Amino acid sequence: MKKIADDILNKVISSRPIISYKGSFGRVITIGGNEEYGGAIIMATNAAVHAGAGLVTCATSKINVTALHAQLPEAMFIDYTDTTKLNQAITKSNVVVIGPGLGTTAQSLAILKTTIAALSANHFIIVDGSAITLLAKNRNLLSQLKIANVIFTPHEMEWQRLSGIPIPNQDIKSNQSKQESLSANVVLKKYHTEIYHTNGSISQLSIGGPYMSTGGMGDTLTGIIAAFLCQFKQVSTSDRIDAAVYIHSAVASSLATQKYVVLPSDIIAELQHYMLISQKK
Ligand SMILES: NC(=O)C1=CN([C@@H]2O[C@H](COP(=O)(O)OP(=O)(O)OC[C@H]3O[C@@H](n4cnc5c(N)ncnc54)[C@H](OP(=O)(O)O)[C@@H]3O)[C@@H](O)[C@H]2O)[C@@H](O)CC1
Ligand SMILES: Nc1ncnc2c1ncn2[C@@H]1O[C@H](COP(=O)(O)OP(=O)(O)O)[C@@H](O)[C@H]1O
Ligand SMILES: [Mg+2]
């Protein structure tokens, strides 16, 4: 298992080509945020915009649109129950994030099914939060998901649900064997997060800490991973994922020198500066 070192940022974050436009930096769609959990998808969307995705669309409950636009006019909105628009927006995107605040109702499941049916081999899909819980209960959908490049981002309980491995038994060998059967990358979030890549490598964080234990911290990570996947195509998928996971905790640990707890919104606000000072010279 490789410990992710600080030089991953310098390797992955490159200066932007002068001849470029917003489309050069990729299109992300974030899908989630029901009536109770609008904040989760707003944080994921905000993180994707601040981490540099060129165009970001948030597909969420209509109830969240004012809050979304009050915080983030840069994001586009679609009603996630509008199947036609959802399909079209997924088709145009490079990276799909599904799950933050999606919930686990029949409507949530219908949105997950529509999303999976719209995927192609060109897509990355980051499956988080409620979408992991839904897939654990609707395992027939797992094989359809495999058409795309999949990244699961479970916390330990979500991984227990999806993998069937109880938290105390989540050792490297069992985790990797389950990850291989899922044909997906798995970012197993915890103190010293482990990343199981489809190329067979395993990476581990050795930064981050309890100042990150606030609701929304994982939702924010999904947006950063999405932005890194759609921008930094000159490096491997595994390096892009490792760099995104690393910068999330690196920003948090840097802010923790001044703050007792670090909020997801604090990390989002610091990303632009941290990426600037970390980029390849
Ligand atoms: N502002 C918003 O809108 C926010 C919305 N959110 C959205 O809420 C949705 C549900 O996500 P969720 O993670 O909150 O709930 P769930 O999947 O039931 O897991 C919790 C259960 O697992 C257990 N547990 C054990 N180990 C654990 C571990 N390492 N990490 C975490 N939990 C662990 C834990 O144990 P306990 O705390 O009871 O000891 C509890 O029994 C999802 O869509 C998410 O995106 C949140 O992001 C918050 C901000
Ligand atoms: N004590 C801790 N040490 C290191 N990282 C932590 C700690 N507590 C939380 N985190 C990080 O915060 C994030 C929590 O993700 P998750 O539980 O999905 O949050 P949420 O669903 O509320 O957004 C993960 O990236 C996890 O690694
Ligand atoms: Mg989560």
TrEMBL record:
SUPFAM superfamilies for the chain: Ribokinase-like
Domain of life of the source: Bacteria
Entry's family note: Belongs to the NnrD/CARKD family.
A GO MF label: ADP-dependent NAD(P)H-hydrate dehydratase activity
Start and end residues of each YjeF C-terminal domain: 5-278
Residues annotated for AMP binding in this entry: K189, K190, Y191, H192, T193, G218
Documented EC number(s): 4.2.1.136
Catalytic function, reaction form: (6S)-NADHX + ADP = AMP + phosphate + NADH + H(+); (6S)-NADPHX + ADP = AMP + phosphate + NADPH + H(+)
Cofactor or coenzyme needed: Mg(2+)
Record keywords, A-Z: ATP-binding, Lyase, NAD, NADP, Nucleotide-binding
Matches recorded under PROSITE patterns: YJEF_C_1, YJEF_C_2, YJEF_C_3
GO biological process: metabolite repair; nicotinamide nucleotide metabolic process
InterPro entries recorded: Carbohydrate_kinase_pred_CS, CARKD, Ribokinase-like
Subunit structure: Homotetramer.
One Pfam family, short name: Carb_kinase
Annotated CDD domains: YXKO-related
Entry binding sites for (6S)-NADPHX: A40, G101, H155, D219
Protein name: ADP-dependent (S)-NAD(P)H-hydrate dehydratase
Function per UniProt: Catalyzes the dehydration of the S-form of NAD(P)HX at the expense of ADP, which is converted to AMP. Together with NAD(P)HX epimerase, which catalyzes the epimerization of the S- and R-forms, the enzyme allows the repair of both epimers of NAD(P)HX, a damaged form of NAD(P)H that is a result of enzymatic or heat-dependent hydration.
